[in-house]
């Protein structure tokens, strides 16, 4: 794997805590909605199993993302809201479920992403959301209020450097 990883749009301290959780989980399959330049997805790949399936969806994904030599990378170009895009994910999974889902795409559609892609994560797997800290609406969309609703009654963890930082912050839910 290349040592030169693409830029990511994350707070390093928060993201490192998520990677620590993932290294324990050692996902065999993961999906990121909102790949951007691939910085977060490439780092997820470093925590995944050697033969993991690494899936990403973006309106305009990069041509590739650094990953392990035996890992299988599938980048889907399209709108996660599109039923055809979700169907591609289901086809690629071929009856298997995800160990990890990262939701960082349309920040006004985190609830829909959770409703549509969350069921693809098996019990004991993890679903994480970026931008749970209130901040400029153009950056965080409705994620902060969506997160307050999502975390209620679910096993969860908040990876937040500072609740006054304006945006960022990662919310983690364990699928039951
Ligand atoms: C904040 S960036 C993701 C940053 C990336 N996860 C990282 O940490 O480096 C959000 C990305 O979501 C993508 N996006 C926005 N709406 C989307 C949608 N409806 N379906 C798929 N991707 C979407 C954008 O193209 C953009 O690349």
TrEMBL record:
Keywords: Methyltransferase, Transferase. GO terms for cellular component: plasma membrane. This is O-methyltransferase-like protein. One of its GO terms (biological process) is methylation. PANTHER family: RHAMNOSYL O-METHYLTRANSFERASE (PTHR40048). InterPro entries: SAM-dependent_MTases_sf. It comes from the Bacteria. One of its GO terms (molecular function) is methyltransferase activity.
């Amino acid at each position: 794997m290349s040592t030169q990883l693409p830029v990511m749009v994350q707070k390093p301290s928060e993201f490192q805590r998520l990677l620590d959780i993932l290294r324990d989980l050692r996902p065999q399959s993961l999906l990121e909605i909102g790949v951007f330049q691939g910085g977060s997805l490439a780092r997820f790949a470093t925590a995944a199993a050697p033969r993991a399936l690494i899936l990403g969806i973006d309106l305009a994904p990069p041509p590739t993302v650094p990953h392990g030599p035996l890992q299988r990378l599938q980048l889907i170009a399209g709108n996660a809201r599109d039923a055809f895009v979700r169907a591609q994910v289901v086809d690629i999974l071929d009856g298997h479920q995800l160990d990890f889902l990262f939701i960082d795409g349309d920040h006004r559609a985190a609830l829909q992403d959770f409703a549509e892609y969350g069921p693809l994560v098996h019990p004991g797997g993890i679903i994480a959301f970026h931008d749970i800290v209130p901040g400029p609406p153009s950056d965080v969309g409705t994620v902060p209020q969506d997160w307050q609703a999502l975390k209620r009654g679910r096993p969860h963890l908040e990876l937040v450097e500072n609740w006054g930082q304006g945006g960022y912050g990662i919310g983690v839910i364990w699928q039951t």
